[in-house]
Specification:
Associates with stalled 50S ribosomal subunits. Binds to RqcH, 23S rRNA and the P-site tRNA. Does not require RqcH for association with 50S subunits. Keywords: Protein biosynthesis, RNA-binding, rRNA-binding, Stress response, tRNA-binding. Belongs to the RqcP family. GO terms for molecular function: ribosomal large subunit binding; rRNA binding; tRNA binding. By secondary structure, the chain is α+β, with helices and mostly antiparallel strands. The protein has one domain: Structural Genomics Hypothetical 15.5 Kd Protein In mrcA-pckA Intergenic Region, Chain A, CATH 3.10.290.10. It is built from three helices and five strands, in the order ααββββαβ. A hairpin with a 4-residue loop joins β3 and β4.
């Protein structure tokens, strides 16, 4: 699954266009490398998102095309939130 779609489906970022813009702004890193919106996500990847004043680091637990709001939180595990 594409990174921008994963961020939207997992509800880490609410809109796919915002996820795409974040990737293009070099604010998202996967496994230590700057990611593009089309980067393929797989289970076990570490995704780091740098916001203006904070950082969110998550581990991808599963990749599904469609999930409910309740299931979305099971798609990732928060490693670091500051």
């Amino acid at each position: 699954m594409r990174l921008d779609k994963y961020l939207k489906v997992s509800r880490i970022i609410k809109r796919r266009t915002v996820a795409k813009a974040s990737c293009e702004g070099n604010r998202i890193i996967i496994n230590g490398k700057i990611a593009k919106p089309s980067t393929e996500i797989k289970e076990g990847d570490i995704v780091e998102i740098r916001y203006a004043n904070s950082t969110l680091k998550v581990r991808v637990l599963n990749v599904k095309q469609h999930v409910t709001k309740e299931e979305a939180q099971n798609m990732y595990e928060i490693i670091l939130e500051k």
